[in-house]
Amino acid sequence: MLTGKQKSYLRGLANKQKAIFQVGKDGLSYNLSKSVSDALEAHELVKISVLKTCEDDFKELTFDLAMNTHSEVVQTIGRTILLYRKSKEQKIQLP
After folding, report:
1. Digit-coded pLDDT (tens) for 63-80
2. Residue 29, SS3 per DSSP
3. CA gap 61, 77 in Å, rounded
């Protein structure tokens, strides 16, 4: 569980990042979950953009994606999701 200070720190790091993934009309699939999980292992912090063509409920999609990837939701803003998961080789030092 992340504290407010840790979430604030991660939001600051993600401010400069661009979204790595886009969720479109197909919604959440196994391949997308697997790709996001692999990216979390490599980067620890991943930004995902949900397009307007996605018919899934945004909050449900966010919850399902976090559960499938065993990650924590740092922030949702607009149609963007920010996920964090500590990898085996920790790259981000949290305060």
Report:
1. 999 999 999 999 999 999
2. coil
3. 14
Mean pLDDT, residues 37-41 taken together: 96
The β-bridge relationship of strands 45-50 and 21-23 is parallel
Q: Is the pLDDT of residue 89 over 90?
A: no
> Do residues 43 and 19 touch, judged by C-beta distance below 8 A?
no
Cα separation, 79 vs 54, whole angstroms: 10
Residues paired with 82 in a beta bridge: 47, 75
CA dist., res. 23 & res. 48, Å (int): 7
Q: 30-43 vs 58-69: helix axis angle to the nearest 10?
A: 60
CB 49 within 8 A of CB 19: yes
Per-residue DSSP letter, 18: P
